[in-house]
Each structure stands twice: as C-alpha cells, then as structure tokens.
Sequence to fold (370 residues):
Amino acid sequence: MNNILVTRSSMPPFEEYCEEIKKLWESHWLTNMGVEHKEFQAELEEFLVCPHVVLYTNGHLALENVIAAMQFPKGGEVITTPFTFASTTHAIVRNGLTPVFCDVNPQDYTMDVEKIEGLITDRTVAIVPVHVYGNMCDVDAIDRIAKARGLKVIYDAAHAFAVRYKGISSAKFGDASMFSFHATKVFNTIEGGAVCFKDDSLVATLNDMKNFGIRGAERVVFVGGNAKMSEFQAAMGICNLRHLGEEIAKRKRVVERYWSHLEDVAGIKLCKPQADVEPNYAYFPVVFDGFKATRDDVFKALADKGIGARKYFYPLTNSFECYVGWPTAGAKKTPVAAYIADRVLTLPMYADLALEDVDRICETILSCGK
Ligand code: T4K
Fold:
C-alpha cells in the first residue's frame, strides 16, 4: 500500500518549466525583479483583477511587510483569529503590535463578526482576519465595522487564492490581502507570496521594504529588508498559473468523493459550501464531534496506515508557548475556536490524489471505533 501525504505540490510538466527558465541561462539574471518577475506580476494583476500586486519570497514576509507599511503606532491592538497558522499572529507581534483574539464561528471557522465590536478599544488599529481553508470571511460585515470605527483591514488570504465572492476576486477586499504561494498551496511558486491592494501609495513602500529601500544605483530612501521573489519562483508561478483551472477542477472531484463517503455520518461535520463563493478546494477539514472515535484516535488510525492527515489548526496560536503570559492570550478566551481545534483534522487533499485513495482514507475513518 502506498503512503498518502496530506498534500503534494502541484508542478507543471518538467519540459514546460525548463522552457520557461531557459532564458535565465541565457541572461544569467536570476533575481532582483527580472523579466520573469515582471511578467508574473502583470499576469497576476490580470488574473486577480487587482490594480497592484507586489511579489514576495514567501507569504509570511508579505504579511509582515504590509502590516508594517500601514505604520500603526507601536502597542496598537489588532483584532485577529487564533485559528490559523503561526504566521498570522507572529506577523502582528513582530511589528510591535498586540494581537487581540476574536473567536471563530462554528460554520466555516472564520472570525465571528458578532464578536468583533466587543473587542474594539481606543488602542485598536486594525483587523487581520483569515480566510481559513479558503473559506471566505464575512467580508461585508467586516467592511461595515472597519469603516464605522476607522480601522484598517488586512486579510490573511494565504489559503484563498483564486476564490471569488459574488464574482469578486478574494484579492479585492479590505485595505490589502496577502496570498501564500508556498509549495503546499493550491497555487505555488515553490516558496512565495504576494500583497494585493488598490491604494497606489502603498506600491513604493512595499517595494522599498522588500528591497532594502533601494530606488537607484546611488539612492537608498528607506531602511528596508530583503524579501524579493527570485526569477525561478516567478517562472514556476507563470507555469503553474496556466494549469490552475485544471488543478482546481481535479480538487473538486476529490472533494466530491470525500462528501460521497462522509456526508451524513453521525458525529462527522464537514464544511458546507459557502453561499455566493466560488471555492478553490484548498483543504478538506473534518470535525469529529460525537463520532464513535475521537479526532486523535482517527489521526492515529490513519497514521498507522501511512495516511498523513494534519491537525490544522491545533494548537491555537493564542496557546502557543511563546505567547504564554501575554494578557490577551489563552484558548479559554476563544471557546469555539478551542472546541474546533480539539476536534478537527484536515484530510489529504491535492489535485492528483487518486479517488481510490480517498476511498481508502474514508474506509479507515469509518472503521475507527468499531
Ligand atoms: N497564513 C496562513 C493562514 C498560512 O497557512 C500560512 C502558511 C502563512 C500565513 C504563511 O505563508 P508562507 O510564508 O508559508 O508562504 C505548511 C506550510 O509551510 C505553510 O506554508 C502553510 N501555511 C502551513 C499551513 O503548512 P507544514 O509545516 O505543515 O508543511 P510540511 O512541510 O509538513 O508539508 C506538508 C506536506 O506537504 C508534506 O507532508 C508533503 C507536502 N509537501 C511539502 C513540501 C515542503 C510537498 O509536496 N512539497 C513540498 O515541497 O507547513
């Protein structure tokens, strides 16, 4: 029996990538915003229907930089979710800001918009919600709250590339959105990420931040760092973008197969398709609540058969060791998120996952606790 990993990177045909990078061997131009970078950026602006896309070497630095670019006062509070990858919370804290954790809703595990206003104080500067698993946040409610209270909204859209809400690209909500193009994502550039936004004045700031503030051979205007996307990453993006439609269609088949086995099973809760959302099928989260076996039993049964499910996202970021002692930390403050984190498992999910493997995964789950 073959082992099944939780995901597997999408890759273009080898010859296609070789063809794309041939010009790099001819020019010896490998990074610092060369031809591949320029072409990929333009393609993304068109694909995401977004006026500005700034490319990064990874999603985390993209998020850290766009938060920094907003120039919030140190010690400002940022309302965010603990049901996410470490990156979201770390990006806030590494900017000298305080994360204030909002609970999630039990339907799609995005921020519970009913609980945001109660967390706003005179120190609140922004909201950083996460379109977790590719599920869109309630962008309309968040927009209303933010506008009424004069707050910035920066979406961690790491999981939501190519998702659309009411026909609008996920890149277009809030003041900015960050995408991750990590190898494990629906769309990858090996490592990579981007910030997408409408405000023209952010372009120069973000470019300065990712390239030492260099504006010319003899001109440095800003104390920036280095977070540039290389030509090889951009070339991977150009190739993978050509195949994205078929990748998502294949993921849809996998998701449908999971549903055919797991829908209506007592104690198993699946994420329902969201109204008005065109999904990307990024992850397949399952919550075991009242099932005949616990989440951890299922995790072990799958692991024993060489099947790599993941406890995304457990533990919550507000209970990470590095945040112990922070006044705003503690999973008790976000009981719904804590409940889900204790019971959730994301099942293997990638375009080329064989449907017979999905059958095997589901048989293993359903035979637990017998
Ligand atoms: N915000 C959110 C909400 C995020 O989820 C993330 C990243 C970020 C921000 C930050 O974006 P980046 O800076 O990463 O661009 C993974 C990824 O490293 C991370 O990108 C992702 N979220 C997170 C949810 O998952 P691990 O440690 O779980 O991945 P790893 O190495 O265990 O890989 C999982 C499976 O993927 C492997 O079993 C096999 C497969 N795989 C992995 C790699 C590295 C491949 O097929 N190819 C590969 O190259 O973190």
In short: The domain at 245-367 is CATH 3.90.1150.10 (Aspartate Aminotransferase, domain 1). The pocket of T4K is lined by residues 5-9, 58-60, 84-85, 87-88, 130, 156, 158-159, 180, 182-184, 193, 308, 312 (CB under 6 Å).
